[in-house]
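Technical note accompanying the year-one report. For the benefit of new consortium partners, we illustrate the data format agreed upon in the data management plan: each record pairs a sequence with a structure-token string. No post-processing was applied to the example shown here.
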Amino acid sequence: MRRITFDIETVGTFQQGDWSQLEVSVVGVYDSQTKKLTSYTQEEFKDMWPLFESADFLVGYNSEHFDIPILNKYYAGDLTKIRSVDLLKEVKNVLGRRLKLDNLAEATLGVNKSGHGLQAVEWWEQGLYEKVRQYCMDDVKITDDLYKYAKKHNKLKYKDYDGVREIKLNTSTWETPSSGPALTHTLPF
């Protein structure tokens, strides 16, 4: 099955008001079929949409609540119609609280993020566009590696005040084929 793992970076922060009004600066994408990690700015979205449309499912971190609604503003169809796995939602459903991506990455994979979202906003404002692209792609790689780890082990790990703990996850339905074609036909043809 073709998995598209993605993450977005934004111009501005939702501390400045309504987060749904944020603009996208960069989208990072990993395609499990081609094994390519790429990034796209708004001007390049026309090259990105075919990847999303050919996906059997999407993978993200806080993607259902944040990334997909914001990205949907740029898409002529409806990205919510594409099956997705939101790792943050999966963790929260089991643990009862949200965890930072960096917490899971460090405990599960032994790696840390290359920055944080507010830094990416500052870098964009400073014209450090390639730095934002790289940061976004780093987050996509971490998210995809966490996804693969969870699929293989049915768990992720996180650091708590008293050490590393495990979150048992039911990943059995994550890659269940849908009855229809991968193309969602959400674009007005």
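Partners are asked to follow this layout when depositing records. The first strand starts at residue 3 and ends at 11.
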